[in-house]
Fold Polyprenol-phosphate-mannose--protein mannosyltransferase.
Amino acid sequence: MGAPPPVRARHLGELRAEQPLFAPTSAHPLELLPTRDRLLRTLLGHRRVVLGRSDHDQVWGWLGTVVVVLVAAAVRLWQLGRPHTLVFDETYYVKDAYTLWNLGFEAQWPPEPNPAFEAGQVDTYLDQAAYVVHPQVGKWLIALGIQLGGGAESSTAWRLASAVAGIVAVFLLIRIARRLFASTAMGLVAGLLLAVDGEAIVHSRTALLDQFLMLFVLIAFGCLLMDREWARRRLAERVAAIVDAGVAGTGRTSLLYGPRLGFRWWRLAAGVSLGLACGVKWSGVYFLAVFGILTVAWDMAARRSAGVRRWWEDSLLADGVPAFLQMVPTAVVVYVASWWSWFATPGAYMRQWAAQNPGQGVTWLPEALRSFTHYHAEMWRFHTTLDSDHAYKASPIGWIVQWRPTSFYWQSDDPGVGDCPVTATSRCAAAITSLGNPLLWWLAALAIVAVVVLGVTRRDWRAVAVLSGTVAGWLPWFQYLDRTVFTFYSIVFTPWVVLTLVYVGVIALEHTERRPRRHRTVILVIGLVVAAICAVSAAFYPLWTAEQVSFDYWRNVVRLPSWV
């Protein structure tokens, strides 16, 4: 049978990051370490193994996180109720959420209900169910925010859940990036960039569904990253036990197939989160597919790096099949369960369709599920045939550079009219434009190309990870070029846009860490880029938050004709 195959120390770039980014330290030679420690460094990399071991790193990890999250909270919560107007698609989702909480289904409203609703007359809804084309999870969260924020009379309450989701997303991205790049500093950079980005700020201050979709897929990504680390630690322990037993005994240990790793709770949690994502919008299914492939690919790479000779077959059977069973059925069950109020409420839209249409639909299903599947078929027909024109319709090609952002709100007044001061020297403008920070997104568009090249040349798993969310959140929309779609959908993959840009900085730091002068230059450049992005955000912030400014200011900031 022979000796076990040698451990591949640098498969898929697993040890591309063996030194701390800002403070290089020497590592023990792999051959001098115990088998388990050697495998851990092979599977996780030295940087990840030592991350957080020092008190300094732990203190700055949490103190920096608190500071960045407070920045995110400040720019999201400041005058959150401005404007006291149903903005863009809030006209659907706020009223849907309110009736969903009160009736168990989304109800119809009388003609032109918004002025009365905004004036505090929030109970003018009818008792007939409305036809809605998105699932209920996001609307339940908006409704919860309304209840906790003071009621439907408050525009702050309408948006409270979105703001909390945006703040939580910044916290999660810090911790995810810190673990992904094995760097506390670059984790904080990633969180800060998300904290000040325009897409993230606007969606945190409006009650739309896409913010919650972004949060749930980000949670799923974080869970799978935790699962990757847990699985590799478990694999290191069990392979080490096999190897050491072979050395201590007969010296003949076979690693034709690797050990089983047990139940993967983090992977199950990812399935739950992805089910909730699909319960916000159906586009969550693309993340389920991409993340499912990603997590199995990570397992394949781990088994090969650990010396398993038939790693591909072993991983498909031991990891791939369980991954599918843990994630896909879980997501389906969670999704169906998220419609619980529809099942429980006889007056919900199409709830009685099966009873009213015997012998139609999927006849072998119980009546409730037959109505459910027919309703979903109608929703699918709507989504796949929507082609009505819209002033802010935008091809997915331009999303990555924010070419045609969506205007959520616009108000212009002459001096002395409304809140525009009599002393104003020009007209006043108040706008909410769902426009990502232009500098961040333009640099990230270039970074995507660089990351693809780096991922191929360096065989670095992190490159695939940072691109995964953009692949799942952006590329599928290219199959709907004739459909009415908008740039604001890009909020769903905004965290991965940030990660992609930060990854380029991480590579530059790693590449120069043994050349102190160049290393300091890279740190300076990263600092200048972050400062410039923050300065751009400060300039655009009034146009993301409906703050009244002079028309001249608005015109000087909105430089591209396609932004208007």
User: Anything to note?
Assistant: The first strand starts at residue 406 and ends at 413.
